[in-house]
Each structure stands twice: as structure tokens, then as C-alpha cells.
Amino acid sequence: MEATSIAHELIARFFRYAAVSSQSDASRSSVPTSDGQRVLARMLAGELRELGGVDVVIDDFACLTARFPGNLPGPTLGFCAHLDTVDVGLSPVIHPQLVRFAGQPITLGNGHVLDPQQYPVLGDYLGEEIICTDGTSVLGSDDKAALASIMTALSNLGHADHPDIVVAFVPDEEIGLRGVKSLDLSRFDVDGAYTIDCEGQATIAYETFNAGQAVVEIVGVPAHPMSAKGVLINPNLIAHDFISLFDRSQTPECTEGREGYIWVQSIDGNQARTIVTLNIRDHNKQKFAERKAHIRAAVTEIQQRYPRAQIVCDITDIYGNIADSLGPDNQWVVDDLRAAVASTGREARPLIMRGGTDGSYLSTQGIPTPNIFTGGFNFHSVHEFLPVSEFERSYRTIWALMTREF
Predict the structure, then answer these.
(1) Keywords, A to Z (predicted)?
(2) pLDDT tens digit string along 113-165?
(3) Residue 397 burial by Cβ neighbours in a 10 Å radius (0-12, 13-18, 19+)
(4) Which CATH number fits domain 210-319: 3.30.70.360, 3.40.50.300, 3.30.780.10, 3.40.50.880?
(5) Given 134, 142, 164, 173, which residue is catalytic?
(6) What is the pTM assigned to this prediction?
(7) What is the phi/psi pair of residue 141, to 5°?
(8) Residue 173 known to be catalytic
């Protein structure tokens, strides 16, 4: 198919998938956490069957997998994208707009504009079509552009030679990778895989955080003020003392690149009980372990300071650094990705990712899974936008990997 036809198919699929509201909901414990994700999975399952996919399965968690048997030797390749869009307090309903950027600020709606003075990268797309929001929601190029690119590539796969390909579309990535952790990996039996979940121009990522979460529960001793002296133990003040034991320069707003941090995410308390939730992040595995040990030591110190309080700390690992899973036997997944991006006419730009993807979890399970750009910019914002040319470059990268044409 011609490039213009590819662009039209990408746009049509993106608008169709974006029309299904699939925002994840961190307040719910079920997987998926929203009905829209299951609706979208069913839609995609029908399309996968129409495209010739076999072993198309949706499980109780709305994890969708399908296989496309190949006719080329070589590694079995996996492609993974997530069904949910992020909840950042905006509307869960997405109304994308297709506009042509003429060099002037783009009026989105709801009082918002997409201004090239604020986002200079827009200048690279002067005269081109751009998909943007209506000012009420995120755009959802994270990750519905990925769904559209994978599905468009599969829709044309019948005309090309390719190795065995397995796709996985999973829910609830935005809230701790819950979906991919629920996936039966026997249905995703691949030699290497790729997520498409990165922003920027020709960006790839194979370095992510090691991530953990600490939940510290502090139970005090409540008392009426008339008899509180020598009796009351205030868990909120204990939480304050606990938090003060951490270095204020080791927080997200003070760090960059490979620098890690401990981030106090929330403090939820009353006169009897307070819960402090902390995110732990570091690219370096040893430093990650040291940060967890620092939290445990802080808990011990506070417990000794307040022996009448009950303090419990629970630390959970969430995902690992993709780079730690790479070695001589599987470095080909990154080498092939670089070559695939180069085949589109641009050199890949490695990103030290200050976050994680479904691939961060898959890599810890023995499936090396670097990340590919979607073509979008400004994820998790009303100012998110998706240049069609960059969208198509993402598609062409996926196509090159699938067909080994690089």
C-alpha cells in the first residue's frame, strides 16, 4: 500500500479505538478496572480474526493474544500494547481532532491552545497533519496509536513474508502494569518482544527504572484532649518525623537521567492510623536495593523513637530495568530495533526512561522487551499531540521488524 493509504488507515483506526473510553481506574482492584477496556479488547479480537489471526483469546482479565504463523525462519516476535488510557483528572471520553499545523497556535478548546512557543518541536511538522485533543482529555496516543500501528501492520501482513508473530493487548498498564502481570505467558511464547509506548521522535527505550512501592502503616494511640497528656500518640506527627528522614534532594523534582529517588506519594491518616505510601525508583539495581534498605532502617528508627506506636512496613517490587535482562544472547532485540528505525530514514534516539512499561515486567520474565516510540508527544496531558508523519514512522518501524526488512 502507498504511504498515503497507510496514513489514512492509521488515522481511521486511531479514531475508532479512541472512541472507546477505556481509562483505567486505580481505585478498583479488579482487572480490568474499567468496562471500556474489555469492550476494546473484544473489538480488537474481532478484527484480529478477520486479519487471519489464530489462537485469538481474551481471558477473564481482558488480556487479548493472537498468533500470526509465519513463513520465514528466525525468532518468534511479540508485540505488546495496552488498552487503557491514563486518569489524570481529565475526561475519560476522547474527541481527537485532525488539523494541519500552519505555524500558529492551535486552538484545542476548553481554553487550551497548542503553542509552538511552548512546544518548539511542533516546528518540525509545519504544514503537516497533526492529531490533537479537544482540550478536555488526554489524546490517548499512549497507547492507542500503538494499537493502530500494530493492527495496520497486521492488516498488510498477508502480502509479505514474516516469522511467527504473537500480539498481546493488555489492560491497566497505567496503574502498575496490572494487566501484563495477569497475562498467561504461555500464550505469549516469544523469543523477544517490543512494546510501543514511548513519546518523541524515533525514540527507543531499553533502560527503565527498577520500581518498588513501600506502604508504611502507623497505628497510634488516640485520646481525648482532656486526658491526652502522656497518653496520646499522634500517627500523623510520627509520619511527619518518618518522612523527614529522607533526603529532599532525592525526589523526582530534584533528579534526572539515571538518578533515582524515593517519592512520598500519599499520606492518608486520622487520629488513630496513618498510611504513608512511597515510590522507590532507581536504574541501578544495587542502589535500588539500598533505597529499600534505607526505608526499612527509617521504620526501625521511628519505631524505636515511638515504642508505643505500631509501625508496619510492606515493600513490593513492581518492575525491573529492561537493561538488566539484556546480554549477548538477546541483544539482537535492540540491534534489530535500531536497524528498523534506521530503515525509516532516521537514527534511533535511545531514551533513559524515567518510568516503566509492560516490557519492564516482561523482561524480568525472560522476554527481552525494549520500547518503541508511538509518534506522540506530551503524554498524559491535554497538550498531547500526534503528528501523522511520526505516527507513520512508528508504523514503518513495526513493519520492518515484522517483515525483517531492515
Answers:
(1) Aminopeptidase, Hydrolase, Metal-binding, Metalloprotease, Protease, Zinc
(2) 999 999 999 999 999 999 999 999 999 999 999 999 999 999 999 889 999 99
(3) buried
(4) 3.30.70.360
(5) 173
(6) 0.93
(7) -65, -20
(8) yes
